Amino acid sequence: MLALFSLALAAVVAAQTLSPSVQHAKRSQLPSGWSRVRRHAPDAVLPLRFGLAQPNIDFNTLEELLNDVSHPESPNYGNHWTATRVAEHFAPSDEAVHAVTSWISENGVPRGRVHVSKTKGWIMLNATVAEAEALLNTQYHVYEHDSGKQHVACDAYNLPAHIVPHVEVVTPSIDFNAILSKRSSSSTSTHIKLGQPGTGTVNPKLTKSVSTILHELENCNTQITPACLRALYGFLYAPLAGSKNSYGIVEYTPQAYRPADLDMFATNFSSIGKTLIGARPVLASIDGGVVQDISESFDFNGESNLDLEYAMNLVTAQQPVTLYQVGDLEMGASFNNLLDALDGSFCTFEGGDDPTNDGIYPDNVAGGYQKDDCGIIKPANVISTSYGYNEADLSPAYTARQCAEYAKLGLLGVTVIYSSGDNGVSGNGGLCLNPDGTQTTDGKIFNPSFPSTCPFVTSIGATQVNPGAKVTDPESACNQVIFSGGGFSNYFPIPDYQKAVVASYLKNSPPPYASTVFNSTGLSRTYPDLAANGANYVIAIDGQFGLVFGTSASAPVVGAMLTMINDARITIGKTPIGFINPTIYSPAFRGAFNDITNGTNPGCGTSGFYTAKGYDPVTGLGTPNFPRLLAEWLLLK
Ligand SMILES: *[C@@H]1O[C@H](CO)[C@@H](O)[C@H](O)[C@H]1NC(C)=O
Ligand SMILES: *[C@@H]1O[C@H](CO)[C@@H](O)[C@H](O)[C@H]1NC(C)=O
Ligand SMILES: *[C@@H]1O[C@H](CO)[C@@H](O)[C@H](O)[C@H]1NC(C)=O
Ligand SMILES: *[C@@H]1O[C@H](CO)[C@@H](O)[C@H](O)[C@H]1NC(C)=O
């Protein structure tokens, strides 16, 4: 007995000596409206959860994994992963689970009280405050909000050094994710930005109403129609694969399409083959997403109508379009809520959704959606989103977590497309950065767009048919109403696929700006990757025709072309094209784009970047030359 006891004691002492206590997280300040009221009672019970770190999630590993299935010269090109393989590859290891559970029991909590989640992502125990404080070398306090709501938290906590690599997050700890009533003034938070027109989004801009649709191909400089786009990009294709293929368009409630407008558009613009009158997208509702008809105006219907009218027309009635309608009418939603629905493991990884930026479901207000949709949807082959943030709206950690998730979609063979923004080198709202990181309209530092700066998505900028020019003339970077979003990331390093073209852009067309204005090292991710027309789109909107502008238009058009390339590949038994960036930047695809060499993307009091021969951070590699792209992609495995 005695011998055993002293042996155990020796082991504990040894572990402590080997593994010093390390601070894992610390809050810099209390969120406004909260104050500390007292030490928490030592015998109170906390639902303590340790979120384990995912292995293989660092940038270089992700890039390597993606290149293996997406690089045209890789022997594994097109061998996309199953969802199970993705889940297993990024699941915490048995070793991590063992290290954390052993450490907890070494500290006196019987192993029987410690639970491991099925995905191995979480280790959970109901701990007394005294136990949690001993494990985490911290103190828990009770805080009270001005509204009377209470919350338990600590200011900082520690973990033994040998546990640190295995743990991403501990809850409850420093965070104040106590959801207050959404309408209360203290939480005019940003988390429903995406679902609210005008903030945090890339909204298309409406200029004037259209009384007569002009004879199409002769007037593409003043009115863009599906026929103009088909002529510009050689995009004539009648699909054959039908429901074996898929194209997803993402909208955030309360954005909603108007069914009558889809029919009006289909009446005036015929597509290839069967009529689209009466055709609707297939609704995939996420977190209570509804096509609301309570509020109708350009702000509520413009984005959805634009995306769906063009996407559906261009892929024709033979190809179903899926509408990912995300978020209920109360809470709204963000990109992470969409990603949760596409990958169940994302719901909780690294602590799960962030209450300041994401919708938190279940939404417990009256009328709110009472579930949290995790892993309910098999992602479409191509997913196009015309919404975006300024990179600086979000933390590097938040964007890295989300960006890794786009890489996982790439492994599954999904092409993820985002519009690049409508403000040139400025961010949404014309905001530019100041040296202290704040964003103001008079800032001088370029303000890149996210998710476009994530190297694992494909970002689409905007071009125009020049005033007075013919549809057969070369396009320029868009400089009517909007400017093509583009530039250099402040958060993400340059991916392999861009290294050569960015080096040559910086060498041959050095931007005339100081290195304080943008990251000029050539070591950061640049965007967009591609471009397509974004000016003068005729859309049916609230019973009329109007003209709209934006990379919002460009993204679903490129998505439609890529969807038709998937159709051709699927029809002959090949795989979808998946993550396209390593392919489109490869030498074989050099001639498959119409290079845009005229125009800039002004912002922040400058002309922005200049287009150039080859790649530029205004229009990327150029606009698609559909027949060339189709031919090249059919040659690939
Ligand atoms: C913690 O206690 C609650 C309430 O008794 C129970 O529902 C839950 O399963 C417990 N969790 C763990 C990890 O033991
Ligand atoms: C749309 O089509 C209808 C029916 O053909 C026609 O009367 C109308 O003028 C067209 N609208 C425009 C704006 O050209
Ligand atoms: C530029 O970007 C690279 C890659 O992200 C980074 O390592 C470097 O620190 C950045 N330079 C500046 C001046 O911000
Ligand atoms: C370049 O673009 C401008 C508009 O941005 C246009 O007026 C001009 O004609 C274009 N020049 C050429 C050579 O395409």
From TrEMBL:
<dbReference type="GO" id="GO:0046872">
    <property type="term" value="F:metal ion binding"/>
</dbReference>
<keyword id="KW-0964">Secreted</keyword>
<keyword id="KW-0720">Serine protease</keyword>
<keyword id="KW-0325">Glycoprotein</keyword>
<dbReference type="InterPro" id="IPR036852">
    <property type="entry name" value="Peptidase_S8/S53_dom_sf"/>
</dbReference>
<feature type="binding site">
    <location>
        <position position="595"/>
    </location>
    <ligand>
        <name>Ca(2+)</name>
    </ligand>
</feature>
<keyword id="KW-0865">Zymogen</keyword>
<feature type="active site" description="Charge relay system">
    <location>
        <position position="307"/>
    </location>
</feature>
<feature type="active site" description="Charge relay system">
    <location>
        <position position="303"/>
    </location>
</feature>
<keyword id="KW-0479">Metal-binding</keyword>
<dbReference type="InterPro" id="IPR015366">
    <property type="entry name" value="S53_propep"/>
</dbReference>
<feature type="binding site">
    <location>
        <position position="616"/>
    </location>
    <ligand>
        <name>Ca(2+)</name>
    </ligand>
</feature>
<keyword id="KW-0645">Protease</keyword>
<keyword id="KW-0378">Hydrolase</keyword>
<dbReference type="GO" id="GO:0005576">
    <property type="term" value="C:extracellular region"/>
</dbReference>
<dbReference type="GO" id="GO:0008240">
    <property type="term" value="F:tripeptidyl-peptidase activity"/>
</dbReference>
<feature type="signal peptide">
    <location>
        <begin position="1"/>
        <end position="15"/>
    </location>
</feature>
<dbReference type="GO" id="GO:0004252">
    <property type="term" value="F:serine-type endopeptidase activity"/>
</dbReference>
<dbReference type="Pfam" id="PF09286">
    <property type="entry name" value="Pro-kuma_activ"/>
</dbReference>
<dbReference type="Pfam" id="PF00082">
    <property type="entry name" value="Peptidase_S8"/>
</dbReference>
<feature type="binding site">
    <location>
        <position position="596"/>
    </location>
    <ligand>
        <name>Ca(2+)</name>
    </ligand>
</feature>
<dbReference type="InterPro" id="IPR050819">
    <property type="entry name" value="Tripeptidyl-peptidase_I"/>
</dbReference>
<keyword id="KW-0106">Calcium</keyword>
<feature type="binding site">
    <location>
        <position position="614"/>
    </location>
    <ligand>
        <name>Ca(2+)</name>
    </ligand>
</feature>
<keyword id="KW-0843">Virulence</keyword>
<dbReference type="GO" id="GO:0006508">
    <property type="term" value="P:proteolysis"/>
</dbReference>
<protein>
    <recommendedName>
        <fullName>tripeptidyl-peptidase II</fullName>
        <ecNumber>3.4.14.10</ecNumber>
    </recommendedName>
</protein>
<feature type="domain" description="Peptidase S53">
    <location>
        <begin position="223"/>
        <end position="636"/>
    </location>
</feature>
<dbReference type="InterPro" id="IPR000209">
    <property type="entry name" value="Peptidase_S8/S53_dom"/>
</dbReference>
<feature type="active site" description="Charge relay system">
    <location>
        <position position="552"/>
    </location>
</feature>
<dbReference type="InterPro" id="IPR030400">
    <property type="entry name" value="Sedolisin_dom"/>
</dbReference>
<keyword id="KW-0732">Signal</keyword>
<comment type="function">
    <text>Secreted tripeptidyl-peptidase which degrades proteins at acidic pHs and is involved in virulence.</text>
</comment>
